[in-house]
Amino acid sequence: MEILDLRHLNSTDLRPLMESETRRWAQRMAWDYTTSAEMVLRYVDAKILPGYAAMEGGRASGYAFFVYEGSKGVIGDLFVAPGPGAAPGTSAKPKKPGENGLEEKLLTHVIETLQQSPGVSRIEAQLLLHDEGSIVRPFMQNGFRRWTRLFMMKSLAEAAPRVVRTNGTVPAAASLVNVEIRKWTEQDFQPSAGVITASYRGHLDAEINDQYRGIAGSLRFLNNIVRFPGCGQFDPESSLVAIDRVTQTQIGLLLCSRVRSDVGHVTQVCVIPEHQGKGIGRALIAGCCRHLRKKKISALSLTVTSGNSSAVALYDRLGFKVEHKFDAFVWEQAG
């Protein structure tokens, strides 16, 4: 087995591995990964995707890639072909930390490359397909911090639950009298960036994703969600904003993408601090679910940091269930 620079390969070399990964995304996350896989293969053919591939007997058995975003490196993906005897789209059996030898080798190469890259002072990674704790060793040995993230899903075939506060009372609708919920438009880019920045100021998620810390970064985040298929096909019809009727300013946001023809995914939902606790987030999610049900969408998923207890509790009350847990990692250069 040898580890090669991805730029030594072409799409023909990598396609069987990508097809296996696409099956894995469908089985584990109910995502259609086809568009993302084809985009990766185009970048491989163009020799512009940095990363590594594990080659065994002339065939690619695993790969990992990363991207540079200014002074930051982002580990975009890691996948290793299922072991012998595994059913299509699955691994042979769940592995404990330290047993994922090939994954760890690929990650070590990627981490070393990024940490030694001139000008890179921060590295982020969220690898959704990998169970919490399964690939921690290369990260922790190289000085990364770690957070647990939850992948949650809700069936839209069920009736909308009657939301009750922890004290047993039903929230009054009066708090939303001065709030308008409407569809997201292209003109909402700039105000949405402001909402994201304000919502995550001092928040633990801004530790995980530094794009949330400023307007420029939030605009890059929005552009990636709306323009590129990494988190599915953006669905403007099911994406919503909350407007304060008194000030005519945006105070909340929900972005939704289609990750499969019949499955939606919330890529962002936030409300600025002074308007939190008024039921706006719940109203945004309920509105999104209504739009998706009209389109015969069967399920809606989202991710949330486990330490964000208020959000986790809300999603639980709204009928979202934890499907699996994964890790987020961040490294920052000392000094």
Brief rundown of the structure:
With 335 residues, the chain is an alpha+beta fold.
Structure overview:
Strands 1, 2, 3, 4, 5, 6, 7, 8, 9, 10, 11, 12 and 13 form a 13-stranded mixed sheet that branches. It is built from 9 helices and 13 strands. With 335 residues, it is of the alpha+beta class.
Present the secondary structure layout:
Blueprint: E1 2-5, H1 11-29, H2 34-45, E2 51-56, E3 59-69, E4 72-80, H3 101-115, E5 122-126, H4 136-141, E6 145-155, E7 179-183, H5 189-199, H6 205-208, H7 215-227, E8 233-234, E9 240-244, E10 249-260, E11 263-271, H8 280-294, E12 299-305, H9 309-317, E13 321-332
Parallel strand pairs: 4-5, 11-12
Antiparallel strand pairs: 1-2, 2-3, 3-4, 5-13, 6-12, 6-13, 7-9, 8-10, 9-10, 10-11
Pick out its properties.
13-stranded mixed β-sheet, alpha+beta, 335 residues, 9 helices
Strand content: 25-35%
Instruction: Return the average pLDDT rounded to an integer.
Output: 91
Unreliable spans: 85-99, 161-174
Backbone structural class:
alpha+beta
State the helix count: 9
* Gap between N and C termini: 38 Å
Shape: globular
Radius of gyration: 21 Å
Q: Which bin fits the share of residues in helices?
A: 25-40%
